[in-house]
């Protein structure tokens, strides 16, 4: 019983500890290629403006498209690239102001290989929106020597193809340019060719060799945005919302923004380097012209330079100079030019136009919009039960409990560690009895273990991605030696989807949903921690050509699996880390392995806003920060901010201390609970916004300038954001902050959520901040629906009554919306929903139906009522209100703004109108 | 108005149907609170927080008027309210108002679900029966436990008294002995002075004699050494600290080698990983661009690279075998990392050397455990722990004989010596001189033993043993839990550890009691890679035996264990439980026939 420990000594331990602190490693820049180590990037970046001299020839209309051939000015005397075959250029026009430009090699010249075009990203409905071009006009523009071909695009917008040198642009009223391609003559297209004797195509990086059997095949070009003050977009990067220039005079030497899906260990908070996702969509915005957008559908590695003004000072190219302009340089390793121009002119127009191409965000299940509790790892069933119990003990609502990789049997997904989780169904059912859900992780790497049925099957069927020699590619990930299903192949995706059927996924229940991690794909021993570029997919497609879309296809297959499981009736929920255009159709995404630091809290806002601008609205950052231990203040601030993220999940690395909300003392528990309550109270509002995103593409969380496109002060603000059009939230990103500067956009006043007090818009307010909350404001003229009763989970809130918060503007008017459906099925798509519009004017609140009347076969009904109506900005006086058509009276009194402990400011309240949410009615203040 | 009436009717209908649901006014109100809601004569009731007033008709009208929930004890309207279920036949329960009419039966009498959306059957009687049985058992345990606890406290009092008596006796003896030692010292020094003088005088003559003298001195010196070996001398203590600074890495290396010897595969991987780590840590390997590129495949196989990268997230080896492994192994990167910062080369030499050394040390340790505690300690903490037993053993020849005679004997001897030895006799009587020296050495050795015992007793008595010193006996106890391949050792007031084979991980040193003596906290244990220092919380429960169970690691490197002991069986709690049982027995359901 006498434990003798001879060798330990406190002093020595503190010494050891000190040495450790210095050896903590973080992001390793050298492990990833920079532009100079990436030959195609280096070449493209070194090209001089005007070096492209291709000419558009044989311009004509065919099959409703404008087509042309791009040829060198003097085909007899080819310059730098020999031999050069003509390229085929196609311009198509779609409804709502979308121009599509394709440039590829001419198949009639029999190139060695068909270049890869990314399938299954463009939604079929988009193709139906094609306008069949009939006419083509020619004109000579300005001082040009040659002609240009012009086709109609939308209203006053036209698409123009200048012939010599070739240039494509969109112009609006008065011939003013909106967007253009190759105006700076940086276009370059490396054609596939046969290897010459003695030529070395291999590329080496840190001990990895890329055989590059097809040689150089990169594409680069410049895109100009006119009337632009800033450009935004091209996630995923941990950087500011308004993209900083990466090259040009006065710009510090910088890498281009890289789009290459990578599993970056401990990414840093300010960097143009590529992380988990790639969405090659850029949006420009300026006071002069409004908003426009550009999208290049290409899944190979991409690098994008934002060129600071004056970058081309010596080029001698004269672009129309009466318009402010931002030039950008786009470079990709492979693929084709398949680019889309969006004319705007408003921010929401561009988002709508873009999501008409790649699809609008899926409508999530209601529970998924609530709070998620995650950790690597909830260890066993008892741990799960304990955490669940603690939420109940503290009366903190939550909806989903997550299990990370340790729940599996040796990292074999679809299996359970039967020691830790002997009764998975029972565990899930226990949660489900409280209306809660569970999520388990399923990653794309499959353990190479002969006894693992999934591996056996995938091997037999030949479903794995192959290495350059044609053998199943063998990489290293969590389970050790692993292989990766070829998700490009629809047959394999369908096979994968079947694995989620209840009979196939042993231990799963209908309340179980899925998390796709590591789908960049992450390969621990691969080049740059991913798959070699010369690995092979179906049809001989090289991994380099589709790399950025691998995770997208995996996400798609998993979401399809859950749809199959629910017999096509239940909406899936799948969280993915890797992203590509179109990911919004398959589920939520999160910003990956962030760190518990204040700066990472700050950067989460521009990261999520940027994703929203490019279609991905259901996103969030790990609340608390994945790596490291947040102090209680940071954690509380993160909850306060995270409550407004579209996707609200707390997560932590397994080496961190436990950080469930009740572990930091009573006061902090109270604060985190309050933050979670705010989210639950606003769930009806959030859900309405998710529906808006689902129909229009407009994100739930928006940059201020999306709502106030004329207010220049908002253009580069990425510390504050809008939730919908009614709520403005300002983050607090510093420790022990006593004040926060909040810019409230002009035009309206704003009601401070904490007090109901109005603040003037169009100026910056220095607000006092307390630990209790971060500043948030309701815009005057809006109505927000709320539910003020809290339950264990969102599921039990279904029948609870609503509160309407009416924030009156200067003319004593306001309006808002509420969308409700069954929160689970696809019936809403057939019209089974309630969509109400609330308008307050002349002292009367009117509820009217927004859904197309009797359009759907399916109906949704709800007996919910409105129990309380709060009027902000209304002087007290009236004592009652008349409800019609019921002809009842409701009392008006001063009631609490919030039903929380402690004193609440009092506000004019219509008490218990108890009108049904589904009905038409009016409430007249008497 | 209509709606409110409907609601009332609905409630009335419910009340008519079910006897367990009180009237609307009283819904969700605890009996002791009924008075609060009846009290006012003006027809209004105050919100408890004083923020507002509400009328009787606003009580339980499903609209929240008081932010603190006073007006809606029986509905879910106020988020901060509480709903009281009577649960006749079982224990009453106060639940959050968020549970009212949420479709989930929370009260066993079903009173929380009255809106008709879900039917809850009354399960109070069955549940109550079960709960009462359990409670009765618990009470029985407490009853017995309370007695045991009293005994424990009495015993503690006796032991403390004994220890305190011993302490004061020792202090007394120390005082006397100190004086004697001082006298002997002076005497010895005088003799030595005389001898020195004599030596100088007779230096040139009688070489043979001198040799003999030398021989004699040698002899007496060797006699000195034997008993002094086990003495914790001041100077040795200083040396010890110097030695200790190396010990954790010794330990770590030892752990590693132990693991390695256990599994050939693992050891290979680990070594490789170590190499890989070094490669990574060394800035040259990564930053020198093209040069390092070609080097890399040589130093790392693909698999090793995979493991290496994985280890960044996990801080451990990702290999199948090792991933399933324990917290001790999780520390591997720490081990390989720590020294790299300093000097790689040194580290490598160190490595092999220490491994063998560690094995030896380990053997020593084993022997020590099985044989005796005679060896000197290297660890400050465990030394103090062991010194208790040390002194008990070594002092047994002096204290255990307990007759006052040993001290008197010494006193007498000293007196004799002081009288007998003629300092001015020349030549110095050699046997007498030796006698003095021996007497001095013996006495000072005894003194230091007594001093050490005093210090350990003082240290012990200074601990917080609880308001009634009820934990006194725990000072000399350790508790063991075997779980899978680990043995957890919990030594209250000292330290806690996790042992796996030969390797020991410290879970913490004794820190304090927490939660009014219901939790023992051990903190500042071995550092976790990328995590906190290990710590252990021992939750104490009333039980009839002192027994530790259920070690758990709810958060990485934060351990928890249960310890049942009669010491926790307090009388007040017993009374509370009995009251609870009485209440449960009293509140039989009137209409147990509802089902």
UniProtKB/TrEMBL annotation, chain A:
Q: Which UniProt keywords apply?
A: Endoplasmic reticulum, Glycoprotein, Glycosidase, Hydrolase, Signal
Q: Name one GO cellular component term.
A: endoplasmic reticulum
Alphabetical list of InterPro entries matching this protein: Gal_mutarotase_sf_dom, GH, Glyco_hydro_31_AS, Glyco_hydro_31_C, Glyco_hydro_31_CS, Glyco_hydro_31_N_dom, Glyco_hydro_31_TIM, Glyco_hydro_b
Is the keyword Ribosomal protein in the record?
Answer: no
Family the entry assigns: Belongs to the glycosyl hydrolase 31 family.
For this protein's source organism, the top of the classification is: Eukaryota, Viridiplantae, Streptophyta, Embryophyta, Tracheophyta
Question: By what name is this protein known?
Answer: Probable glucan 1,3-alpha-glucosidase
| Localization per Swiss-Prot or TrEMBL | Endoplasmic reticulum
Automatic annotation (TrEMBL), chain B:
Q: Does the keyword Signal apply?
A: yes
Superkingdom to which the source organism belongs = Eukaryota
Pfam families per record: PRKCSH-like, PRKCSH_1
Q: Does the keyword Endoplasmic reticulum apply?
A: yes
Q: Where is the composition biased (Acidic residues)?
A: 343-354, 361-370
* This protein's UniProt keywords: Disulfide bond, Endoplasmic reticulum, Signal
Q: Where is this region: Disordered?
A: 195-392
UniProt protein name: Glucosidase 2 subunit beta
């Amino acid at each position: 019983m006498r434990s003798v420990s001879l060798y330990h000594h406190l002093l020595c331990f503190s010494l050891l500890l000190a040495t450790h602190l210095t050896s903590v490693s973080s992001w390793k820049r050298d492990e990833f290629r920079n532009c100079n180590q990436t030959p195609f990037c280096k070449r493209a970046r070194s090209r001089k403006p005007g070096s492209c001299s291709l000419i558009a020839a044989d311009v004509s209309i065919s099959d409703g498209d404008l087509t042309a051939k791009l040829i060198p000015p003097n085909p007899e005397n080819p310059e730098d690239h020999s031999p050069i075959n003509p390229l085929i250029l196609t311009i198509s026009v779609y409804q709502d102001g979308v121009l599509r430009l394709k440039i590829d090699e001419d198949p009639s010249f029999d190139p060695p290989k068909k270049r890869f075009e990314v399938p299954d990203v463009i939604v079929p409905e988009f193709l139906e929106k094609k306008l069949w071009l009939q006419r083509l006009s020619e004109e000579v523009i300005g001082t040009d020597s040659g002609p240009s071909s012009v086709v109609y695009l939308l209203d006053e917008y036209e698409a123009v193809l200048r012939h010599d040198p070739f240039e494509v642009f969109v112009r609006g009223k008065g011939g003013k340019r909106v967007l253009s391609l190759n105006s700076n003559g940086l276009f370059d297209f490396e054609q596939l060719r046969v290897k010459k004797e003695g030529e070395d195509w291999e590329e080496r990086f840190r001990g990895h060799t890329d055989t590059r059997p097809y040689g150089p095949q990169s594409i680069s070009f410049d895109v100009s945005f006119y009337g632009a003050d800033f450009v935004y977009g091209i996630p995923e990067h941990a950087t500011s919302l308004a993209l900083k220039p990466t090259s040009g005079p006065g710009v510090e030497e910088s890498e281009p923004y890289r789009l290459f899906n990578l599993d970056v260990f401990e990414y840093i908070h300010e960097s143009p380097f590529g992380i988990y996702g790639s969405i090659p969509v850029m949006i420009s915005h300026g006071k002069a012209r409004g908003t426009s957008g550009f999208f290049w559908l290409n899944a190979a590695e991409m690098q994008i330079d934002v060129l600071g003004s004056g970058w081309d000072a010596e080029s001698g190219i004269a672009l129309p100079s009466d318009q402010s302009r931002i030039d950008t340089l786009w470079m990709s390793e492979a693929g084709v030019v398949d680019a889309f121009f969006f004319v705007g002119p408003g921010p929401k127009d561009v988002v709508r136009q873009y999501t008409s191409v790649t699809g609008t965000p899926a409508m999530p299940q209601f529970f998924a919009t609530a709070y998620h509790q995650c950790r690597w790892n909830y260890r066993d069933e008892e741990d799960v039960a304990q955490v669940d119990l603690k939420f109940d003990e503290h009366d903190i609502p939550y909806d989903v409990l997550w299990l990370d990789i340790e729940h599996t049997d040796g990292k074999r997904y679809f299996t359970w560690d039967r020691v830790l989780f002997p009764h998975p169904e029972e565990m899930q059912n226990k949660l489900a009895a409280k209306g809660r859900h569970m999520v388990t992780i399923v990653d794309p790497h499959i353990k190479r273990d002969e006894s693992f049925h999934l591996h056996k099957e995938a091997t037999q069927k030949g479903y794995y991605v192959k290495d350059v020699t044609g053998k199943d590619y063998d990489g290293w990930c969590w389970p050790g030696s692993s292989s990766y299903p070829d998700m490009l192949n629809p047959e394999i995706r369908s096979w994968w989807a079947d694995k989620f059927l209840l009979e196939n996924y042993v231990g799963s229940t209908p309340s179980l949903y899925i998390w796709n991690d590591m789908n960049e794909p992450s390969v621990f021993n691969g080049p740059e921690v991913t798959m070699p570029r010369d690995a092979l997919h179906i049809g001989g497609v090289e991994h380099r050509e589709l790399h950025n879309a691998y995770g997208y296809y995996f996400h798609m297959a998993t979401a399809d699996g859950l749809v199959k499981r629910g017999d096509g009736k239940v909406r899936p929920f799948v969280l993915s880390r890797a992203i590509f255009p179109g990911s919004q159709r398959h589920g939520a995404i999160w910003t990956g392995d962030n760190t518990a630091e204040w700066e990472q809290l700050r950067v989460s806002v521009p990261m999520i806003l940027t994703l929203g601008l490019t279609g991905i609205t259901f996103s969030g950052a790990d609340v608390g920060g994945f790596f490291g231990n947040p102090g209680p203040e940071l954690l509380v601030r993160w909850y306060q901010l995270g409550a407004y993220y579209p996707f609200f999940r707390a997560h932590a690395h397994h080496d961190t201390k436990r950080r469930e909300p009740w572990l930091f003392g009573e006061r902090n528990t109270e604060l985190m609970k309050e933050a979670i309550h705010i989210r639950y109270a606003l769930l009806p509002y959030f859900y309405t916004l998710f529906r808006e995103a689902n129909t229009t593409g407009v994100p739930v969380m928006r940059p201020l300038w999306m709502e106030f496109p004329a207010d220049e002060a908002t253009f580069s603000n990425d510390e504050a954001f809008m939730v919908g059009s009614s709520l403005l939230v300002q983050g607090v990103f510093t420790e022990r902050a006593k004040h926060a500067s909040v810019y409230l956009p002009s035009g309206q006043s704003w009601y401070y959520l904490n007090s109901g007090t109005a603040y003037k818009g169009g100026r910056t307010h220095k607000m006092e901040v307390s630990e209790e909350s971060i500043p948030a404001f309701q815009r005057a003229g809006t109505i927000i629906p709320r539910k003020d009763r809290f339950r264990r989970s969102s599921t039990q809130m279904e029948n609870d009554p609503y509160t309407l918060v009416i924030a009156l503007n200067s003319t004593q008017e306001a309006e808002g919306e509420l969308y409700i459906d069954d929160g689970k099925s696809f019936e809403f798509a057939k019209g089974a929903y309630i969509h109400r519009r609330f308008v307050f004017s002349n002292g009367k609140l009117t509820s009217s139906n927004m859904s197309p009347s009797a359009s759907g076969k399916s109906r949704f009904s709800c007996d919910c009522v409105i129990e309380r109506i709060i009027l902000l900005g209304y002087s007290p006086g009236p004592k009652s209100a008349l409800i019609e058509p019921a002809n009842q009276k409701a009392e008006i009194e001063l009631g609490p703004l919030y039903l929380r402990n402690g004193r609440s400011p009092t506000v004019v309240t219509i008490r218990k109108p108890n009108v049904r949410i589904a009905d038409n009615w009016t409430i007249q203040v008497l | 108005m209509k709606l409110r009436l409907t609601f009332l009717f609905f409630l009335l209908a419910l009340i008519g149907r079910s006897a367990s649901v009180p009237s609307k006014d009283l819904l969700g109100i605890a009996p002791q609170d009924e008075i609060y809601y009846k009290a006012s004569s003006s027809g209004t009731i105050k919100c408890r927080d004083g923020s507002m007033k509400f009328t009787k008709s606003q009580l339980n009208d499903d609209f929240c008027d008081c932010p603190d929930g006073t007006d809606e004890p029986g509905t879910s309207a106020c988020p901060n309210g509480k709903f009281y279920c009577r649960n006749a036949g079982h224990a009453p329960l106060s639940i959050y108002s968020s549970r009212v009419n949420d479709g989930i039966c929370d009260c066993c009498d079903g009173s929380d679900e009255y809106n008709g959306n879900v039917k809850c059957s009354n399960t109070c009687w069955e549940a109550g029966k079960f709960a009462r049985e359990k409670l009765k058992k618990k009470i029985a345990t407490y009853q017995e436990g309370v007695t045991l606890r009293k005994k424990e406290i009495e015993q503690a009092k006796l032991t403390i008294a004994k220890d305190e008596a011993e302490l004061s006796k020792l202090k007394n003896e120390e005082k006397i002995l100190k004086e004697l030692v001082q006298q002997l010292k002076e005497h010895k020094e005088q003799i030595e002075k005389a001898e020195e003088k004599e030596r100088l005088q007779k230096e040139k003559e009688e070489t043979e004699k001198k040799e003999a003298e030398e021989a004699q001195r040698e002899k007496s010196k060797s006699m000195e050494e034997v008993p002094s070996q086990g003495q914790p001398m001041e100077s040795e203590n200083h040396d010890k600290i110097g030695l200790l600074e190396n010990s954790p890495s010794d330990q770590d290396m030892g752990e590693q080698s132990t693991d390695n010897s256990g599994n050939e595969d693992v050891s290979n991987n680990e070594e490789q990983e170590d190499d890989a780590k070094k490669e990574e840590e060394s800035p040259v390997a990564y930053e020198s661009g093209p040069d390092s590129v070609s080097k890399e495949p040589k130093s790392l196989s693909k698999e090793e690279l995979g493991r290496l990268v994985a280890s960044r997230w996990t801080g451990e080896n990702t290999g199948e075998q090792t991933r399933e492994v324990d917290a001790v192994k999780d520390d591997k990167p720490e081990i390989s990392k720590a020294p790299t910062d300093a000097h790689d080369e040194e580290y490598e030499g160190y490595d092999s050397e220490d491994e063998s050394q560690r094995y030896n040390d380990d053997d020593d340790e084993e022997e020590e455990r099985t044989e005796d505690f005679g060896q000197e300690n290297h660890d400050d903490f465990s030394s103090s722990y062991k010194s208790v037993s040390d002194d008990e053993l070594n002092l047994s020849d002096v204290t255990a004989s307990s007759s006052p005679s040993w001290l008197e004997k010494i006193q007498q001897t000293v007196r004799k010596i002081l009288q007998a030895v003629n300092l001015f006799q020349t030549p110095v009587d050699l046997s007498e001189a030796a006698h003095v020296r021996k007497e001095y050495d013996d006495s000072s050795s005894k003194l230091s033993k007594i001093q050490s015992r005093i210090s350990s007793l003082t240290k012990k008595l200074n601990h917080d043993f609880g308001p009634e010193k009820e934990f006194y006996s725990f000072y000399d106890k350790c508790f063991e839990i075997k779980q899978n391949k680990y043995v957890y050792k919990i030594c209250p007031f000292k330290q806690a550890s996790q042992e796996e084979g030969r390797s020991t991980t410290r879970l913490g040193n004794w820190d304090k009691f927490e939660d009014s003596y219901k939790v023992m906290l051990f903190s500042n244990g071995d550092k976790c890679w990328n995590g906190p220092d290990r710590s252990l919380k021992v939750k104490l429960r009333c039980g009839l035996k002192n027994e530790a169970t259920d070690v758990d690691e709810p958060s990485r490197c934060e351990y928890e264990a249960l310890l049942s002991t009669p010491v926790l069986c307090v009388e007040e709690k017993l009374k509370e439980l009995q009251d609870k049982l009485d209440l449960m027995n009293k509140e039989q359901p009137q209409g147990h026939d509802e089902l």
